[in-house]
Write a structure and sequence with these properties.
Order of helices and strands: EEEEEHHEEEEHEEEHH
Oligomer: single chain
Number of helices: 5
Shape: elongated
Helix content: 25-40%
Radius of gyration: 27 Å
Strand content: 25-35%
Largest sheet: 10 strands, mixed
Number of domains: 2
Distance between the termini: 65 Å
Structural class: alpha+beta
Length: 247
């Protein structure tokens, strides 16, 4: 059996080889053990409530890249509170402190690779912390590969449980997933129904052809060509507005 010092109270804590998680028998602090050493468990409380998370999802779904009326037509199929694990590294680089965050759990959601730790929101995760029934996602990615790539001198390394809302929704009989940052309200998704581009391409092509023809006409009759170009501009603007509102 090996022993380490509890990062909170300093007591010696024993653990067996291969153990990843242990708890201090004196103060109850959870301790994450990695081949690179021991560090704190931290956790960030939820700042976004469920109703607010649903509203943020609707606003995300109304974005310009989403299919039209997704915010109205998407049917919520489930809302879940989770604490997602990330590693927080504090390093001293050229005399300045740098903080980086990397996922400790497997994910394909791009936003979870760039979460920001809110200043002052870190709480020590021990036996006294109330998760209110939120799921604790256990890490399955080692810390060591990240450490080998980080610059500078190590100041602190920790496992942080980050609050997220996981929302499942159905659109056109297909199921999708969105994650709302439980701290900032930012939305992340690896896949979502996108707005079609065919109508926009058609408008652009028609405008290009019209301007090309009017350019040739200008060689023979400039006033008429300029008048036609003005009408084309109005037509393109009106067509683009129609497509944006209806498609």
């Amino acid at each position: 059996m090996t022993t380490i010092s509890c990062p909170k109270c300093g007591a010696k804590v024993g653990f067996d080889a291969g153990t990843k998680f242990t708890k201090c028998s004196y103060c109850g602090t959870n301790i994450y053990i990695d081949r690179s050493g021991a560090g704190f468990y931290y956790i960030i409380p939820f700042a976004v409530k469920e109703n607010d998370a649903v509203g943020m999802f609707r606003r995300w779904a109304a974005g310009p890249t989403k299919v039209k009326d997704l915010d109205r037509l998407a049917q919520l199929a489930g809302v879940k509170r989770q604490f997602f694990p990330v590693y927080m590294f504090k390093r001293e680089v050229n005399g300045k402190e740098q903080v980086s965050v990397e996922p400790a759990g497997s994910t394909i959601l791009p936003g979870l690779h760039s979460l920001k730790i809110p200043a002052g929101d870190l709480k020590i995760y021990d036996a006294s912390f109330d998760t209110s029934g939120a799921e604790i996602v256990q890490p399955d990615i080692e810390m060591l590969p990240y450490l080998n790539q980080l610059p500078g001198k190590a100041k602190e390394q920790a496992l942080v449980y980050f609050p997220v809302w996981k929302l499942d929704y159905v659109y056109n009989l297909k199921r999708y997933e969105v994650v709302i940052d439980g701290s900032s309200g930012e939305g992340f998704a690896s896949e979502f129904p996108v707005r079609g581009s065919a109508a926009y391409i058609a408008v652009a092509a028609a405008g290009f052809i019209a301007f090309a023809a009017e350019g040739l006409l200008a060689i023979y009759n400039l006033p008429i060509a300029l008048g036609a170009m003005g009408l084309t501009v109005v037509g393109i603007f009106g067509s683009a507005l129609f497509v944006a509102r209806r498609m």
